[in-house]
Amino acid sequence: MKLKTLLMGAAATLALAPAAMAERGSDGQLNIIMWQAPSTMNPYLSAGTKDVIAASMVIEPLASFTADGKLTTRLAAELPSLENGGISEDLKTVTWKLKDGITWSDGTPLTADDVVFTANYCMDPEGGCAQLAKYEGIESVEAVDPLTVKVTFAEPHPDPFSAFVGGQSPILQKAQFENCTGAAASTCTEQNFNPIGTGPFKVIEFKTNDVITFEANPEYREPDKPAFATLTIKGGGDASAAARAVLETGEYDYAWNTQLAPDVLAGMEAGGKGKVQVAFGSLVERILVNLTDASSSLPEGERSTAKNPNPITTDPAVRKALSMAIDRSLLTEIGYGQAGKPTCNLVPAPEAWASDNTACLTQDIEGAKKVLEDAGWVDNGSGVREKDGVRLSLLYQTSVNAVRQDFQALIKQWWSEIGIETELKTVDASVFFGGDAGSPDTFQKFYADVEMYANNFEGNNPEPYLAQWTCDKAPRPETQWQGENHARFCDPEYDKLVAELGKTVDLTERGNLGKKMNDMLTKDSNVIIPLVYRGTASAVSNTLEGVKLNAWDTEIWNVADWSRKQQ
User: Fold this and answer.
1) Which helix (H) or strand (E) holds 349?
2) Which of these, 459, 452, 344, 369, lies nearest to 408 by C-alpha position?
3) CA distance linking residue 29 with residue 156, whole number of Å
4) Most buried among 60, 77, 303, 458, using CB within 10 Å?
């Protein structure tokens, strides 16, 4: 398919038609349980999926992706295309037109100034924006008139649907956040916990890492939505308790991220109160290798920064051996069953971007031993290898979750078989995936040698996802420890490919560049060690209707369409 045809067709994409409902608030209370409790309502200050999901019920983007990965409008009146003039012929500008009459929950009008402010807020070099890759290549954002925004790229940009698209890139109200830019961004507690939005719900009370209460937004543009008058998100606990609360006891209506072994979920579903929905998008469980030294002996502010390279993991042989020792098929079988597939790729989909990178699918313990031996890591009889007086000992962290602890135990055993000593660390998921710059336990700060979690990208364009790994996006004190490049990977050649991808128009060539970048991060360097291509899985009460699990955007993207099933 030619690019021009693709872009012209974007304007014709329509949202899925929701079921009709009686009136706003007629279905009373909706209860959601998220065992990884949200720690902020500002996704620009957190890379945690839990925070993006919670915020998406309040603050919205200009456009989003449907459950089948197609673009649809949110705050925008139409999708820009070549046909309607929204995308320029030289592919250097995209013009968004806002829907007329949309108001914030405080009754004030949404304008182009809010969109411009949002871009500047994230692109402020002192702000440490967690979603900076969404704005890659943007030269300027300007308000043409109160309902029109023009985005200009430094180079021709073949896919402009990144900034302001999807739950990771919503519009902030300028009036509320204008004193919260740059280094002040993380200090604005009231704004970050209680954003004024245009979405179906508004925040009534936010208790970080605990409970959020919402009520229907009286200013929401669709007068008969949402069907629920109030909504509560309860955080904490674990995946098992969350799934049980929907599938067995029926205390809750929706449990996010039921990351449990397949036999456990099947047993719970037998309770008859609900079902687990699964959707495949781009979610990959992976291990990241920290290329910087996280040792507690270093001064605070220098740990896990480029000032101090990691004396063990900067050896490519160590990273290669770590990957070779893992049996991904066994991990998938015990952890996810049919809801997972072993993978060597960071980008498993769409097909045009997926590398034929499969060598890691075969575990090779003996080969891993030889790689270490050849690199000078020798076992002198203790069972743990050493080189130049450095003991091959790693700290391996992840969030508290039964499946992840099973993975940790197995991987620790495999690594011990090749002479690597491993200390395991688990962190409460609400803290691990939080954005608190003062916490030593977040996945961004990465005070460990390796860490494990899952992440994905929105929509069907992996470009912004791959752009996360440039040198400038490493978390550090100067960015309030925000930044998507958690491994602190820095390769000027990779940065050049990001720039090249940003201006490449041919669709086949874009896919080929993406494959090359995927391979640089995985099999060529083993800085990222992919494990399992996972389906997104959540538990839904049998009393709910309208739920369409979305693996290409925030999964509760259509919460405004949810309603209580009539008995």
Assistant:
1) none
2) 452
3) 48
4) 458
Q: What is the 8-class DSSP label of residue 71? A: E
Per-residue pLDDT band at 322 (split at 50, 70, 90): very high
Q: For 376, how many CA atoms within 13 A lie in the half-sphere containing its CB?
A: 7
φ/ψ of residue 187, rounded to 5:
-90, -10
Identify the burial level of 22 via C-beta atoms within 10 angstroms of its C-beta, where 0-12 means exposed, 13-18 middle and 19 or more buried. exposed
| SS3 call for 359 | helix
Q: Give CA separation, 532 vs 283, 292, 374, in Å.
A: 8, 25, 29
Residue 208: HSE in the Cβ half-sphere, 13 Å Cα cutoff: 14
Please state, in angstroms and rounded to a whole number, the distance separating the CA atoms of residues 318 and 528.
13
Beta strands in 217-321 (DSSP E): 230-235, 254-255, 274-289
Under 8 Å between Cβ of 296 and 313: no
**Rounded Cα–Cα distance for residues 478 and 464 (Å):** 22
What the block records as the tokens of 539 is 């538990």
Q: What is the full DSSP assignment across 363-399?
A: --HHHHHHHHHHTT-EE-SSSSEEETTEE-EEEEEEE
Phi-psi region of 306 (alpha: psi -120 to 50; beta: other; left: phi over 0): alpha
Specify the pTM: 0.82
Q: In whole angstroms, what is the distance from residue 108 CA to residue 88 CA?
A: 31
57 near 556, Cβ under 8 Å?
yes
Residue that has been written with the tokens 């073949």 in this structure: 158
Instruction: Phi first, then psi: give them for residue 528, nearest 5 degrees.
Output: -115, 130
| SS3 state at 340 | strand
* pLDDT band per the 50, 70, 90 thresholds, residue 8: very low
Per-residue model confidence as pLDDT tens digits over 472-510: 999 999 998 989 999 999 999 999 999 999 889 888 999
The pairs formed by 39-42 with CB atoms below 8 angstroms and a separation of 24 or more are: 39/208, 39/209, 39/430, 39/431, 39/433, 39/434, 39/435, 39/436, 40/192, 40/193, 40/208, 40/434, 40/435, 41/192, 41/193, 41/194, 41/195, 41/203, 41/206, 41/212, 42/172, 42/191, 42/192, 42/195
CA-to-CA distance for 183 and 85, rounded, in angstroms?
A: 37
SS (H, E, C) 459-501: CCCCHHHHHHHCHHHCCCHHHCCCCCCCCCCCCHHHHHHHHHH
Supply the DSSP string of 445-463, one letter for each residue. T--SSEEEEEE--STT--H
